[in-house]
Write a structure and sequence with these properties.
The chain folds into 2 domains: 125 residues, Quinolinate phosphoribosyl transferase, N-terminal domain (Aldehyde Oxidoreductase, domain 3, Alpha-Beta Complex); 143 residues, TIM Barrel, CATH 3.20.20.70. The strands form 3 sheets. Strands 6-11-10-9-8-7 form a 6-stranded parallel sheet. It has a 4-stranded antiparallel sheet with strand order 3-5-1-12, with helices on one face. It is an alpha/beta fold and 278 residues long. The longest helix has 32 residues. Helix 1 packs across helix 3 and helix 4 packs across helix 5.
């Protein structure tokens, strides 16, 4: 992750939560009282958020000591203590909620991605994410997908062209849309076209799209149409795919399967923070 961006985002999150002051901690504990908190997994899953812990707490207090026993992408087990943070009690309590929220969400995404990769069980087809991310958390959520064994789709509207059904309708055809795009973008930008019919596959191929997305198509339809796509064009399956039916797409031959559920409906991994006294 971009460390400058991470620090900037964490700063915003801390300001939102702390505001002008932490009324609870400041009125209960002295400035020099020391303590320790431990991060404990309450369920099995894939850990993600090492940089959040290591960067977050020192932003509030440079004297805190952070110890983490696992790396991003490694499995943690229920009951496992995987991180310890020591320092001023007030600093630990000010940072606890923001850091924990992010680590839980990122670990939940990494765990869901890892499960998707396991279910798909393919040497060829990769699991990828979408733009259905939480506003403000896209960098962290897409990083979590990587930690779970997936790959990233485009990060936004700015780094790749995706010609969807509405673009095609307004432009008049796939051919016209691709021509307009090609006349204005540089050679480093990929162009993906979303298709829904066999004729659209043929048109996208003729227009020389870089990627063809089979949108809301059944595994049988994809198997039938993918033979029309030459080897130099990447393929993607998207829409209507969940962990429940993911395995049925294993033998379609597509290069990637995108799952919006990895980020927009994911369950946070259950993690708690325990205080160590004495």
């Amino acid at each position: 992750m971009n460390q400058l961006k991470l620090k900037s985002q964490l700063e915003q999150f801390f300001i939102e939560d702390i505001g002008d002051r932490d009324l609870s901690s400041e009125t209960i504990f002295g400035k020099d009282e020391k303590g320790q908190i431990k991060f404990v997994a309450k369920d099995n899953g894939i850990f993600c958020g090492e940089d959040v812990i290591r960067t977050g707490f020192p932003m509030l207090d440079q004297e805190v000591v952070v110890e983490i026993s696992v790396k991003d992408g490694e499995r943690i087990e229920k009951g496992q203590v995987f991180a310890t943070v020591s320092g001023k009690v007030s600093s630990l309590l000010q940072g606890e909620r923001v850091v924990l929220n992010l680590v839980q969400r990122m670990s939940g995404i990494a765990t869901a991605t890892n499960e998707a990769v396991r279910i798909l069980n393919s040497q060829h087809t990769k699991i990828t994410d979408t733009r259905k991310t939480t506003p403000g958390l896209r960098m962290m959520e897409k990083y979590a997908v990587q930690c779970g064994g997936g790959v990233n789709h485009r990060f936004g509207l700015y780094d790749a062209v995706m010609i969807k059904d509405n673009h095609i309708s307004f432009a008049g055809s796939i051919t016209k849309a691709v021509e307009k795009v090609r006349s204005q973008i540089g050679h480093m930008v990929k162009v993906e076209v979303e298709i829904e019919t066999e004729d659209q596959v043929k048109e996208a191929v003729a227009a020389k799209a870089d990627v063809i997305m089979f949108d809301n198509r059944t595994p049988d339809e994809i198997k039938e149409w993918i033979g029309l796509v030459p080897e130099g064009i990447k393929t993607e399956a998207s829409g209507g795919i969940s962990l429940d039916n993911l395995a049925s797409y294993r033998d379609t031959g597509v290069d990637v399967i995108s799952l919006g559920a990895l980020t927009h409906t994911v369950k946070a991994l259950d993690i708690s923070v325990k205080v160590v006294i004495g």
